[in-house]
Specification:
By secondary structure, the protein is α+β, with helices and mostly antiparallel strands. It has 5 helices and 7 strands.
Length: about 190
């Protein structure tokens, strides 16, 4: 398996995560001016919350992306849509490539994240709320089966609320694997 996950250690991983979230491409993450200490404090709060946690995604053992999983009912989303049992929220930040871009890499990472989330008992729908201006992530979300529900006002941004049901993800995954011009690296994940 190419991608694996481990729990983020807020203190030990702060410098690594800081090196990702303070780059211009990560502007929508909202931490461009954060210090390493700011990152450590933020992720310590996330890990202690009981309803939101962060994982590092590893590519053959090397940290390659940051994934956050959260309960929408305990987030600002609860005020903007009717949360259903089985809803899980997700955030994703892919690290800058160390050896140059790899075609299909970000889609493969997203596939691994969604496969992991949908493998959890009771998860029926993944919810995302990226900044409405973040067109790159909107396109990726659509490729993996997310359906837009509209722009919503959250405390820190105008967000494009989108949902992905298991069946939509599986259909999108099948289509991506069959499209040679947009490769998807297979993780061997089963749902």
């Amino acid at each position: 398996m190419r991608f694996t996950f481990r729990c983020l250690d807020a203190a030990a991983d702060a410098a690594l995560v800081h090196s990702w979230v303070t780059r211009p491409y990560a502007s929508f993450w909202g931490m461009l001016s954060a210090t390493v200490e700011d990152v450590a404090v933020e992720y310590a709060k996330i890990q202690a919350s009981g309803h939101h946690h962060a994982l590092l995604g590893l590519d053959r053992g090397i940290p390659a992306f940051l994934m956050e999983e959260y309960q929408p009912a305990a987030s600002p989303l609860a005020a903007v849509y009717p949360v259903l049992p089985g809803d899980v929220g997700m955030h994703l930040l892919v690290a800058p490539p160390s050896d140059g871009p790899e075609p299909g890499y970000t889609a493969a990472v997203m596939d691994a994240v969604l496969a992991r989330l949908f493998s959890e008992p009771g998860v029926e729908r993944i919810v995302v709320e990226p900044d409405a201006r973040n067109t790159k992530i909107h396109a990726l979300n659509e490729r993996l089966g997310f359906q837009h529900a509209g722009v919503v006002a959250l405390p820190d941004k105008e967000a494009l609320l989108s949902f992905c049901h298991r069946s939509d993800y599986l259909a999108a995954r099948t289509a991506l694997q069959a499209t040679p011009s947009r490769p998807l690296i297979s993780q061997g994940a089963s749902l």
